[in-house]
Design brief:
With about 140 residues, the chain is an alpha+beta fold. The chain has two domains: about 5-50, Translation initiation factor 3 (IF-3), N-terminal domain (Ubiquitin-like (UB roll), Roll); about 55-140, Translation Initiation Factor IF3. The chain has helices at about 5-15, 35-50, 70-85, 100-115, and strands spanning about 15-20, 30, 55-60, 85-95, 120-130, 135-140. A hairpin with a 6-residue loop joins strand 1 (about 15-20) and strand 2. Helix 3 (about 70-85) crosses helix 4 (about 100-115). The mean pLDDT is about 90.
Length: about 140
């Protein structure tokens, strides 16, 4: 239909003429309430942003001579982070003579943490040694 007819029909209904495909021959237009369309679109975007979660990497520091109860306290904090759907990096720091038995300490501390966290988290990165520390990364399991 002609442009003027479309504008008259839209004005009669209290709506707008919106160009859908400008490059088509003839151009394709639609009669709609454009303000309402924009409002609904913004609401959908707000809802999508609200339901999004950005995953953060939280860090905890542990010494190799940590006792079992202290390790459980660190695990409790780790569990809070996992429940918030964040990843947790555990740093195991070595100083002085602790470096002599690094493998034993690593196996004891990380083994205990893996055992405690097996039902809520999975190991995303295996222990890696760099600059006097071992680092391990835990991520939440998908079913949480």
């Amino acid at each position: 239909m002609k442009k003027q007819e479309a504008l008259e029909i839209a004005a009669g209904k209290g709506m707008d003429v919106v160009v859908v495909a400008l490059n088509a021959d003839p151009p394709v237009c639609k009669i709609m309430d454009y303000g309402r369309y924009i409002f609904k679109k913004e609401k959908q975007q707000q809802k999508a942003r609200k339901s999004q979660h950005t995953t953060r990497v939280r860090e905890l520091r542990v010494k190799p001579t940590i006792e079992d109860n202290d390790l459980k306290i660190k695990f409790r904090k780790m569990k809070e982070f996992i429940e918030e759907k964040d990843k947790v990096r555990i740093n195991l720091f070595f100083r002085g003579r602790e470096k002599v038995h690094m493998e034993q300490y690593k196996d004891r501390v990380f083994g205990r943490l893996i055992e405690l966290a097996e039902d809520i988290a999975k190991v995303e990165e295996e222990p890696v040694f760099e600059n006097n520390k071992y680092t391990i990364l835990f991520a939440p399991k998908k079913n949480n």
